[in-house]
Specification:
This protein is mainly alpha-helical. The chain has a domain of 68 residues. The protein is built from 5 helices and no strands. It is elongated, with a radius of gyration of 43 Å.
């Protein structure tokens, strides 16, 4: 009986040790799965913000309540679970829905206007402002030159006017 009790005790210890080892392995597997899920959820959230709803004009997949956005979010989650990289997901979505679905479309011949029009408009505005300021500067210099230089006839007429004004002032003060 003592032998049976000792064997039972050893068996219990072995079962406890085995259970603890299994718990440790399960915990490690769950931790790896949870960290993987957290990373995948972050990728899912980032990508759903970077992709545009095809129906809604200016909403991301994350913000849109349209049925197609729900379908695309489900498809996005499936692609991530299948191991697609972020670039592969974007390529997949752009191949099916066009570059419109990407908030940051690639620089291609068809999108050159989108990429460079703002820069060209800023440069055009700067050139126009420069020309206007130069034109205004030249005009003001020309007007100052015209005012500053009098021909001989104008100078003589001005001197006569000033002399006649002085004589009138002198006469008014003499009369008083």
């Amino acid at each position: 009986m003592n032998l049976h009790c000792c064997n039972t005790h050893r068996l219990q210890q072995a079962l406890i040790a085995l259970s603890l080892m299994m718990c440790g392995m399960i915990q490690q597997a769950l931790a790896a799965e949870l960290s993987s899920d957290v990373l995948m959820e972050k990728r899912f959230a980032d990508l759903s913000e970077q992709l545009r709803c095809p129906k809604c004009q200016n909403q991301s997949l994350a913000d849109s309540d349209a049925i197609i956005s729900r379908d695309l979010r489900r498809q996005l989650r499936e692609l991530l679970q299948q191991g697609y990289s972020n670039a592969e997901v974007k390529q997949y979505m752009a191949a099916r829905y066009g570059n419109f679905i990407l908030y940051d479309p690639p620089v291609e011949r068809a999108t050159l206007v989108l990429w460079f029009a703002p820069l060209l408009l800023i440069l055009l505005g700067a050139v126009i402002l420069y020309r206007i300021s130069r034109s205004h500067h030249r005009t003001s210099q020309t007007e100052h030159t015209k005012v500053d230089t009098l021909n001989q006839a104008e100078a003589k007429r001005l001197a006569n006017l000033l002399v006649s004004q002085d004589s009138k002032v002198i006469q008014v003060t003499d009369d008083a």
